[in-house]
Amino acid sequence: METIVIKAPLGAEIRCGDIRKLSYFDLGLLENIFLENLVVLIRNQDLNDHEIIDFGKKFGELQLSNPLPSPLVKEGKVKERIKNINTPEVTFVSNVIENGVALGGFGDSELVWHSDMSSFTTPPNQTILHSIEVPKEGGDTGFNNMYLAYDILPSSIKNQIDGLMLKHDATIDAAGYLRKQFIDASDDLRSSPGAIHPLVRTHPNTKKNCLFLGRRIKSYIVGMEVNESEELLDTLWSYATKPELEWFHQWKPGDLLMWDNRCVMHKRNAFNPLSRRLMHRVVVKGTQPYRIKEQITSHKRAYL
Predict the structure, then answer these.
(1) Does residue 250 sit in helix, strand or coil?
(2) CA–CA distance, 120 with 170 (Å, rounded to integer)
(3) What does pTM read for this prediction?
(4) 290 and 199 in contact (C-beta within 8 Å)?
(5) CA 127 → CA 97, 116, 134, 153, distances in Å?
(6) How far is the C-alpha of 211 from the C-alpha of 285, rounded, in Å?
(7) Which CATH number does the domain housing residue 117 bear?
(8) Model pLDDT, residue 77
């Protein structure tokens, strides 16, 4: 197993051949590399849905999939793909329309910075995304290091946010669509639905603290006046989305990316709507976020 550390604040490419043939020892090494580098890339993987499920289960129990929204389904122009009952753990991320049916969700537009399913009481540990078809350009996926985002905060802001709780809005998804089950939800940030988590969380494996922001739209710091919450969140996001914390991946067919939702946010760039992009995704279940006071210094990887 060869590890090539990417010259960025996070990310490593692992060259290990066919992941279906990895031993338990290899999988242990892979998990350690993953925890150290936050995002890992493995190229040239030819996997069917059962095989990506088997790989994902090496790291924990998988969540069952809910179909992702397609803009054209929302507009009533095409039908939504019927959920696959044989592989319910797999989510299809795609802009492709075949015979009037959307093969997946999220279309071709930009997806803003976010952590997957942070509005859940127990957000997922990690996401595994496998590329089937990719456009010649565009559709890159970006990641940022939320350990480092916390580390670079001024001491005054660290003291200000110590012990604060953030409500992660459940009504809007990463593509900006209103989830249909929340169509009648309150517009008041203080009472709208969403899970409440520590603004600074402790990673259960590394024991390091990091910012946990989820996504910006309609989030709210519990107990504050709305205008105060908005001002503080704008400040935190200005640090969390600094370019020097980012790495963007340009996809090739057969790429497999795995990232740590506990300490990484991600986004997607827009791409040509006439091109085809098809990804299959599985998500590893997590545990409820928590915070411990003792801060372990971020590993040197964060400062490359």
Answers:
(1) coil
(2) 8
(3) 0.93
(4) no
(5) 24, 8, 18, 27
(6) 20
(7) 3.60.130.10
(8) 82
Q: Give the count of domains, the chain.
A: 1
Instruction: For residue 56, give both structure tokens.
Output: 């994902």
User: Could you give the maximum distance between any two Cα atoms of the chain, in Å?
Assistant: 57
Pairwise CA distance, residues 95 & 92, whole Å: 10
- With respect to residue 4, please indicate whether it lies within any of the assigned structural domains: no
Classify the C-alpha dihedral 202-207-122-286 as positive or negative. positive
The residue to which tokens 């639905």 are assigned = 193
Which residues span the domain enclosing 257? 47-303
- Residue 15 forms beta bridges with which residues? 2
Tell me the helix, strand and coil percentages in the chain, rounded to 5.
20, 25, 50
Closest CA to 202 of 291, 304, 73: 291
pLDDT of 174 > 70? The answer is no
- Give the Cα separation of 72 and 273 in Å (integer): 12
Q: Is residue 81 part of a domain?
A: yes
pLDDT higher than 50, residue 180: yes
Distance, in Å, from the CA atom of 259 to the CA atom of 127, rounded to the nearest integer, reads 6
Which helix or strand (DSSP H or E) is residue 72 part of? helix 71-74
* CB atoms near residue 280 (< 10 Å): 23
Which pLDDT does position 303 carry in this prediction? 38
Question: Which backbone phi and psi does 38 adopt, to 5 degrees?
Answer: 75, -35
